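Follow-up to my post from last week.
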Amino acid sequence: MKLPDIDFNKMGGLVPVIAQDSDTGEILMLAFANKEAVKLTLQTGRAHYYSRSRKKIWEKGASSGHIQEVAEVRLDCDNDSLLYKVHQRVGACHTGYYSCFHKVIEKNGELRISGKKVFNPEDIYKKY
Amino acid sequence: MKLPDIDFNKMGGLVPVIAQDSDTGEILMLAFANKEAVKLTLQTGRAHYYSRSRKKIWEKGASSGHIQEVAEVRLDCDNDSLLYKVHQRVGACHTGYYSCFHKVIEKNGELRISGKKVFNPEDIYKKY
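User reply:
Got it. Predicted complex:
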């Protein structure tokens, strides 16, 4: 499978990827992917990313079970950002929230939590 | 105004910012912001970003008129990505589409356009 022209050069081999709930439109997370991760995503139908800290490809949910089944992959006008529209199992955030974007920055700079917890992260991650 | 703890260090002073239509949930674009651009966004209520190529802050729509009125700013769990929920005037993409993410990558790697054109870019950008 040959990928279309995607500009991985601007970020040293990576592009930012937005994961969006394909049913509700809610934004779940932002991560990064390299060429191989994008190919794996298209081939398997499950969201794959590249971890900048661990320096390797990871499949979302591989250890937690909270996988993302990919309904659609989109590319932006400049060919340097991707969008995965996904069916999220359980929740996307490692803190237990459905979405990683659960903190609102108010006009005065203060933070307010806005989102729902869908699992207890201690149940999932206590083994690490 | 004091910003909350945002991790600008991972990307040399920048964080990726997703712009999402606050009414429909459609994702409009992905860009980057530095600290000053985030402050300007919160203070003015209009989306500001930082251009990596031009190396300066820009207000979306400053030349085209296609501004983004910001309804809400959100921060993710790791404090290294932002979400602007916006009211988009006319269209977000410089190519004339409402959203920058108007190209679908099919499973075989081929591209398919999926999106609506809402203006003729030649009417806006011919002066540049």
